[in-house]
Design goal:
The protein is about 45% helix and about 15% strand. The chain has helices at about 20-30, 40-55, 70-80, 105-135, 155-175, 195-200, 205-215, 225-235; strands at about 10-15, 35-40, 55-60, 85-90, 140-145, 180-190, 245-250. The mean pLDDT is about 95. The chain is of the alpha/beta class. A 7-stranded parallel β-sheet has the order 3-2-1-4-5-6-7, with helices on both faces. It has one domain: Rossmann fold. It has 8 helices and 7 strands, in the order βαβαβαβαβαβαααβ. Bound molecules: nicotinamide-adenine-dinucleotide (NAD). The site of nicotinamide-adenine-dinucleotide has 30 residues, from α1, α4 and α6.
């Protein structure tokens, strides 16, 4: 296996499940020392255990990305343990349920924006400050969604929060590109994670999967590994000239 991240450190939020877990495992498999941050302690510790079982180096820290104090502690912990912060994958996110906009509760807006949008702002703020303290250099990838490219009927608030992620990504990329900090976003389409099934409560999982496969031009949803590989590419030297990019990994959904 290539070791594109040997000697580097990576911080992955939402690393206790789905896309975040796959990215944490992939970073570690390519030599990175990985901090997994999540509100799900069992899931986060399990990701760290899986990495250690394959000879990799990983730690878990409980952190809620919507809380500034937790995010500060996350970046401090990463630097104390691994000296530098080279790569950050701001991926933690929640769904907002499905309802037409006029029926969405205010609490749903507040929670979805707190985690999906404010969380990315808080993480980037701390990560960029640390990367500047290190003398510049570093890669940040945020998880947006391919939903930002389509008008949404039932997930308007979730999509609006992901628009915020896309916009913050491009603004921050432009602001810090001359400091050697490359900031990009990955925009997954339907991906086989617990979030995809949670978004359709009451629908049997096999039906959710079948419908999602059928609705995707490639005829299948993404695996978490496919999204993780796009994230690693964006963080790798192979993407050395790429900044502010919104990379779709969506099986042709946005065509
Ligand atoms: N699965 C899809 O189809 C899909 C499509 C597009 C975008 N996304 C995005 O991908 C990202 C990862 O989602 P996933 O599909 O792997 O879902 P997932 O539910 O499997 O994983 C999300 C992880 O984030 C954690 N998390 C939630 N709130 C948090 C908080 N406040 N602080 C820290 N951690 C928190 C969860 O505990 C969980 O471990 C999300 O941002 C999601 O919006 C997913």
């Amino acid at each position: 296996m290539e070791q594109r991240f040997a000697g580097k450190s990576a911080c992955v939020t939402g690393g206790g499940s789905g896309i975040g877990r796959a990215a944490a495992i992939a970073f570690a498999a390519e030599g990175a020392r990985v901090l997994i941050a999540d509100v799900d302690d069992a899931g986060g510790k399990e990701t760290a255990r899986l990495i250690a079982a394959h000879g990799g180096e990983a730690s878990f820290l409980h952190a809620d990305v919507s809380r500034a104090a937790d995010v500060q502690a996350m970046v401090r912990f990463s630097v104390e343990r691994y000296v530098r912060l080279d790569c950050a994958f701001n991926n933690a996110g929640i769904g907002g349920g499905r309802a037409p906009l006029a029926d969405v509760a205010e609490e749903t807006w507040d929670r979805v924006f707190a985690v999906n949008a404010k969380g990315v702002y808080l993480c980037m703020q701390q990560e960029i400050q640390q990367m500047l303290r290190q003398g510049g250099g570093g890669c940040i990838v945020n998880t947006a969604s391919m939903a930002v490219f389509l008008a949404s009927v039932e997930t308007a608030v979730y999509t609006a929060a992901k628009w915020a992620v896309a916009s913050l990504t491009r603004s921050a990329a432009k602001t810090y590109v001359d400091k050697g900090i490359r900031i990009n976003a990955v925009c997954p389409g339907r991906t086989d994670t617990p979030l995809m099934y949670r978004g359709r409560p009451g629908v049997p999982p096999d039906q959710v999967l079948r419908q999602a496969n059928d609705a995707t031009p490639m005829g299948r949803v993404a695996s978490v590994e496919e999204v993780a590989q796009a994230v690693l590419w964006l963080c790798s030297d192979a993407a050395s000239y790429t900044a502010g990019h919104l990379l779709t990994v969506d099986g042709g959904q946005y065509l």
